[in-house]
Amino acid sequence: MVFPGPYFSKEKILAGIEQTMEKREEAGEYHSKDFEWEFLKNIVENDPSLSHHLHHHHQNLSKYLPDSQPWQDFHSRHSSGKFFKERRYLLKEFPELVSCGENSKLLEIGCGNGSTVLPILRGSKNITVYACDCSSDALVRTKENIDRAISSVDNFHSFCCDFSTSEFPDWVACDRCRDKFMLNHSGGSESKHCIGGVDFVTLIFTLSAVPKERMPRAIKECFAVLKPGGLLLFRDYGLYDMTMLRFEPEKRVGFREYVRSDGTLSYFFCLDTARKLFTDAGFIEVELEYCCVKAVNRRKGKDMYRVWVHGKFQKPFSN
Q1: So what's the pLDDT on residue 208?
Q2: CA distances, 191 to each of 195, 197, 216 (Å)
Q3: Which of 65, 91, 130, 266 has a CA that sits 20 to 30 A from residue 218's CA?
Q4: What is the number of alpha carbons within 13 Å of residue 104 lying toward its C-beta?
Q5: 69-77 vs 136-149: helix axis angle to the nearest 10?
Q6: Is residue 249 packed enough to be buried (19+ CB in 10 Å), middle (13-18) or exposed (0-12)?
Q7: Strands 226-237 and 302-314
Q8: In this structure, are residues 202 and 230 in contact, taking their beta carbons and an 8 Å threshold?
Q9: Homologous superfamily of 10-46+68-314 in CATH?
């Protein structure tokens, strides 16, 4: 297996992958298995040059607990809004978002610049979307992108929140608190969630940016804000994805956890880790699998193996 060397610019690599992904989206083939994950696992685990990705180190790895500042800086740098493409494939991946009943409520966590919420708002008139991010700059970008793409929208509301350290405001989960919030533009008590909840929570390439030790608490927050029977829709980086294997040894800050040069974190999930995180929080597993896509750099004839984890988890109807 050959990976792009340093003589490829990052921009060219990403552009090539992006072109391939766009073609897949148009063909409706994004949720695909170009290869079996076990095939990639065998290649990686037998390549000595990649051994630093595979094992727990005996020495203590440095604890890296970032605040929201690296993401604030990230969204400031990418203020043009062109860094992310609209994730139109999500409506094919999660058809529940299109077929949902009237007055459904969705909480999008880590909305970035709106690449997830925009196709959802386009695809379903029945959903009211509540979107949060730890970066206030991201929320500004999201609103700008939605206003630019959709002439008038009254079913979108955003707020700043780091769900790995803070509770969601009560108005997200409770109709009475929500009505009060809409009138007064201020949240209710933040002590406990009221009875109620949202129908869907989307965690799309968000959980991987949370420090591993904070993940259980963050997922319990998602569980608390959902209605009984509500769904959490999950998509994130999978173990041995190309981006993981390109990290240098000194960028590793934990087992399968890395820090980028801009200070943001990235964790890579195997199915067992994802399953345990969500079921320990009380969720029932509905779907959980790897999505494996092979992109090709035509110029150099290099295969680039992308791996994502796709999951759906349900809050039980009764405890």
Answers
A1: 95
A2: 13, 15, 19
A3: 91
A4: 20
A5: 40
A6: exposed
A7: antiparallel
A8: no
A9: Vaccinia Virus protein VP39 (3.40.50.150)
pLDDT confidence tier of residue 172, bands split at 50, 70 and 90: confident
Contact between 307 and 37 (Cβ < 8 Å): yes
User: 185-223 burial, b for 16+ CB within 10 Å, e for fewer?
Assistant: eebbeeeebbebbbbbbbbbbbbbbbbbeebeebbebbb
Beta bridge partners of 237: 308
- Reported as a single tens digit per residue, the pLDDT across 68-114 is 554 444 444 444 545 456 777 888 899 999 888 888 999 999 988 88
Please write down the long-range contacts of 62-70, taking CB distance under 8 Å and 24 or more positions apart. 62/253, 63/253, 64/211, 64/253, 64/254, 64/259, 64/265, 65/211, 65/214, 66/211, 66/259, 66/263, 66/264, 66/265, 68/134, 68/135, 68/162, 69/263, 70/262, 70/263, 70/264
Phi, psi dihedrals of residue 265, rounded to the nearest 5°: -95, 155
pTM recorded for the entire structure = 0.79
Q: Domains of the chain: which residue ranges?
A: 10-46+68-314
Q: Which residues are registered as beta bridge partners of 129? A: 106, 156
Structure tokens that stand for 1 in this block: 């297996």
Nearest Cα residue to 270 out of 289, 295, 247: 289
CA distance linking residue 186 with residue 89, whole number of Å:
34
Residues 201 and 226: their CA atoms lie apart, in Å, by: 7
Q: Name the amino acid, one letter, at 234.
A: F
